[in-house]
Recover the amino acids of this structure.
């Protein structure tokens, strides 16, 4: 039997939570409305990068076939067209000459997108751009060049631009220009649709996320059954402990006098679940269910208060 992924760094089953489903719906609405892009905003730790990568490889949510690509924008000191196209080439897994001119890189990107669309029998290509808050106004012009080139070949580019809204370096005085300073041709392409990506909100979304651990399997056994086989055989399910999770969260927030957004960051949820399953359920003799105190401790040890303190003073749409 292989090592269980939750005992390593891969702490979650590869499934869609409600926030991911909401993101997919927002993208579909943008596609239906004929837009060429959508701006996604979310705080650090909410799971936006995982969500965008998940949707780029699990395509069942699409109502029409479309090839996809996922790319992450690094922090750069050189914001030239050549450097931008090189980043996109990397996301498309294209080989290239280090000294290639920008125009040649653009042509290669266009050829790849057009050929992928032809093979899929569709006119639409979806490009997921993570860390999009790092894009400069010039970068958006370079992205428009790709859009123009693809359009000339008879295809359409749709960009999902995923922004970390509490990245003060990107949105500060020296960061990206506000949308009011962007040229109209950039705004009409990439800024017409928006969606706020949040962590898990309320009992229903937490219960839904917990249920993923009750259904996702590794080596034919669900995640919850693997770590608590006896309790699982007797009818225990993680889903049924959503109320204890909400109660533990409320208790922590009240004790710390936290205000503002109360959605649970996916990063904290995953780390808490790992501790509960791997270090509590699997190690506790005659385990039956988690107590509210155990859940509270797991959330605290996952860094809930530290992350909330760091995020509370940052911008969030």
């Amino acid at each position: 039997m292989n090592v269980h992924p939750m005992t390593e760094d891969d702490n979650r089953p590869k499934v869609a939570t409600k926030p991911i489903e909401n993101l997919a719906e927002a993208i579909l609405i943008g596609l239906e409305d004929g837009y060429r892009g959508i701006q996604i905003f979310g705080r650090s730790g909410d799971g936006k990068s995982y969500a965008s990568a998940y949707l780029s490889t699990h395509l069942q949510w699409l109502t029409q076939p479309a090839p996809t690509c996922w790319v992450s924008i690094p922090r750069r000191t050189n914001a030239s067209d050549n450097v931008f196209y090189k980043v996109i080439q990397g996301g498309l897994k294209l080989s290239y000459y280090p000294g290639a001119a920008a125009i040649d890189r653009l042509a290669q990107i266009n050829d790849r997108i057009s050929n992928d669309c032809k093979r899929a029998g569709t006119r639409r290509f979806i490009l997921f751009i993570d860390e999009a808050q790092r894009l400069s106004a010039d970068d958006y012009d370079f992205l428009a060049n790709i859009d123009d080139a693809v359009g000339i070949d008879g295809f359409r580019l749709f960009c999902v631009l995923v922004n970390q809204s509490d990245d003060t370096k990107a949105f500060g005085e020296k960061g990206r220009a506000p949308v009011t300073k962007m040229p109209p041709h950039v705004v009409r392409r990439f800024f017409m649709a928006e969606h706020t990506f949040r962590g898990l909100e309320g009992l229903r979304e937490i219960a839904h996320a917990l249920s993923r651990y009750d259904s996702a399997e590794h080596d034919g056994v669900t995640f919850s059954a693997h770590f608590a086989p006896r309790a699982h055989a007797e009818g225990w399910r993680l889903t049924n402990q959503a109320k204890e999770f909400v109660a533990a969260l409320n208790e922590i927030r009240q004790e710390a006098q936290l205000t503002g957004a109360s959605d649970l960051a996916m990063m904290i949820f995953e780390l808490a679940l790992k501790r509960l399953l791997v270090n509590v359920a699997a190690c506790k003799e005659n385990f039956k269910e988690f107590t509210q105190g155990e859940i509270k401790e797991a959330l605290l040890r996952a860094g809930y208060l530290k992350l909330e303190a760091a995020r509370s003073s940052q911008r969030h749409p």
